[in-house]
Amino acid sequence: MKKLDIKTYKRHKIVDFMGVFFLTCVLLFVWQLYRGPIAIPFLKPYIIKALNHDDGDYQVTLDSVNLEFVRDIKPIRIIATNVTYRKKGDELVINAPKTSVSFSIRALLQGVVAPSSIEVIKPTVYIFTTYGVDKEKQPDTINQKKLEYYFDSLKDFLERFNSEDNAYPESFINDIDIQSAEVEFHEVDLGRKWVLSDVNYRFDRGLTGLETDINALVKFDNISSSLGLEAVYRTVSNKVALRFYFSDVILADLMELIDSQNQSPENFRVEVPTNGKIDILLNVDNVIKNRNDLGKGLPHTARPLAEQRMFPETELPSKTSSSPPHPMPSSTR
C-alpha cells in the first residue's frame, strides 16, 4: 500500500472532520426540530411580502415565524403564527392561528417574493359583500347585480391566477389548502348573514388549467346540510366547468339562498331532505361579452329550464320512506 505524504494525509483528515461536523450539525438540527419549533424571525418580512401583494388594499400582520417538524409528506414547514389578513374597509378579514408558506423559486429568480404553496389551518373568516342594490328593488335587478358581482370576481380570479406574463404574485401559486375554517358571509345590501362551519378549500394548478374545490356545512333552521362547489378552468378553451353539489338540503331553503326575493316557482318548494348536483359549463368570453344581460328574466324565463335540468340529477327521498337520503354523488375531475 502506497504511503500518503503528510499534506495529502492532513487534507483527508480535514475532509473527514468536516463531514463528521456537518453530520453532527444536521442531527442536532433534526433533534431540535423534534423537540419544538425553531424561530426564524428574519423571514417575517418576506412572509408578509409573500402574503400581501397589494399594500394599498390589504394589510397582513403576524406574530412569529418558525421552522416546524410535522408528520406529513413535507416534514419541515415554515409556519407563521396568528396571521391576520385584512382588506381595506374590512370587506374581508381572515384570522389564522397557523399558516404554512413555501416560497416560489421561479418568482425569486425574477426578483419577486411570492408563495408557491399556502396551507391554512382552522382560520376564522369574515366576508362582507355589497352588490350596490336596495333590497326593496325588483328581483330581476337584484339577481342581475349579484350575478355581475360574482362573475366579476371570477374574472379577477382568472386574471390574477392565470396571468401569462406572471404580472401578479398569485400566478406563482401552485396550491392552496384551507382546512376546517369557520366563515361568516354577510350580504350587507340584503341584510343577510350565512354561517358556514367546517369549510375546506383546495386550489391546484395543473398542466392544462386550474382546479378548485370548496365544501362546507351550513345550518337551515338548525338542520345541518352539506354544500360544495367544484370548478375546473381549461386555459385552451377558456371555459369553466362548475359543479354545485348538496346533501340533506331542504330545497326551499336552497332556493332561498340562491334567490334574493324568494320568487322561485312552486316546484322548488320541496320540504324534504334533498341530495343532488348541478353542472354548468361557462364560456368565459361569452359571459364577458354579454355581461349586461346577466340575470335578466331569471325568475320567469330561466327557471323552467333549470327545473328540467336539475330534477333528473336530484334524488328526492319519499316522505314515507324510513331509509336515509342517498349519499352525496361522487365526482371526478
Globular, elongated, flat, extended or rod-shaped: what is the shape? elongated
Main pleated-sheet profile: 13 strands, mixed
Query: Can you give the helix content as a percent range?
Result: 25-40%
pLDDT < 50 runs, ≥5 residues: 297-333
| End-to-end C-alpha gap | 65 Å
Q: Round the Cα radius of gyration to an integer and report it.
A: 26 Å
**Order of helical and strand elements:** HEHEEEEHEEHEEEEEHEHH
What's the pLDDT, averaged over the residues?
Answer: 76
The tally of beta strands, per DSSP, is 13
Beta-strand content:
35-45%
Based on secondary structure, the structural category is alpha+beta
Would you give an account of this structure?
By secondary structure, this protein is of the alpha+beta class. The chain folds into 3 domains: 1-35; 39-121, no CATH class; 133-320, no CATH class. The protein is built from 7 helices and 13 strands. It has helices at residues 6-35, 44-51, 105-109, 139-161, 251-258, 284-289, 298-310; strands at 38-39, 58-61, 64-69, 76-87, 92-103, 115-121, 124-129, 175-187, 192-205, 209-220, 223-234, 239-250, 273-283. Strands 1, 2, 3, 4, 5, 6, 7, 8, 9, 10, 11, 12 and 13 form a 13-stranded mixed beta sheet that branches. Helix 4 (139-161) links the parallel strand 7 and strand 8 (175-187). The longest helix has 30 residues, at 6-35. The protein is elongated and about 95 Å long. The termini are far apart.
